[in-house]
Amino acid sequence: MTPEQSPLGKASSYTEQYDATLLFPIPRIGAREQIGIGAQLPFFGTDIWNAYELSWLNARGKPQIAIATFFIPADSPNIVESKSFKLYLGSFAQTKFDSADEVRDVLKRDVSAASGASVSVKLDQPGAFGKIAFEEFDGLSIDRLDLDAEVYHPDPTLLNAAHEESPVEETLVSNLLKSNCPVTGQPDWGSVQIHYVGPQIDQAGLLRYIISFRNHTGFHEQCAERIFMDILRECKPDRLAVYARYTRRGGLDINPFRTNFNMPMPDNARLARQ
């Protein structure tokens, strides 16, 4: 159950016959312990996965296509390794199903079993493709700042806030998030939205902190949780929400959302880069 044991970064044989055993779960606990998260989670939220390369055969053998969206609870014990997810979805290609509802039910059952929690699944078929929303993050872009950056591994000491001044509520966004796959070293490109209530966060320090992930290795979900925890500890907001959206790789994009207060769930609108 470690990334090294997964299919990630290895030559793979592709099957087009349905095979649920291809899904490879990785426990969240190890990465969480490294950043000081215990059994009592300081946040709740979800990981939103969008799968753009899903196809199967109907009962008469005609290919069907859909975009699948998975909502995996942040308190699930496992994440699912992304290459195994792709191999699993690819196994539907030459498999007959009676209906899209049957496909959705199978996806829900299998991904729920792998993640260890109840997963919601939504299928958009071609007639709905034109209704999929595109929009950019709301908030003030900190990428506008003209500054020097020299740190390329996560450094929470770059963060600071005006603790002696009145609290503020604001939303800050950046498109300069980059991290790397912990097994293959491939780059993962992302955007991040940070909404908080509390001491005003120094924007230059926050941007340098986000840039500091540039040579960091970690799965998408783990990077989002590290950002959440570092801001929570260093800036001490009363309320905090972190939402990261990564560009797709292998037909999948992964979008972790973490918050410590009740707010509407993100609408899963696709960013232009996705």
TrEMBL record:
One of its GO terms (cellular component) is cytoplasm. One of its GO terms (molecular function) is preQ1 synthase activity. It catalyses: 7-aminomethyl-7-carbaguanine + 2 NADP(+) = 7-cyano-7-carbaguanine + 2 NADPH + 3 H(+). Pfam families: QueF, QueF_N. The keyword Cytoplasm applies. GO terms for biological process: tRNA queuosine(34) biosynthetic process. The keyword Zinc-finger does not apply. It is an enzyme of class 1 (oxidoreductase). It is found in: Cytoplasm. Transmembrane segments: none annotated. Pathway: tRNA modification; tRNA-queuosine biosynthesis. NADPH binds at S82, K83, R249, G250. Homodimer. Catalyzes the NADPH-dependent reduction of 7-cyano-7-deazaguanine (preQ0) to 7-aminomethyl-7-deazaguanine (preQ1). Belongs to the GTP cyclohydrolase I family. QueF type 2 subfamily. This is NADPH-dependent 7-cyano-7-deazaguanine reductase. It comes from Paraburkholderia bannensis. The gene is queF.
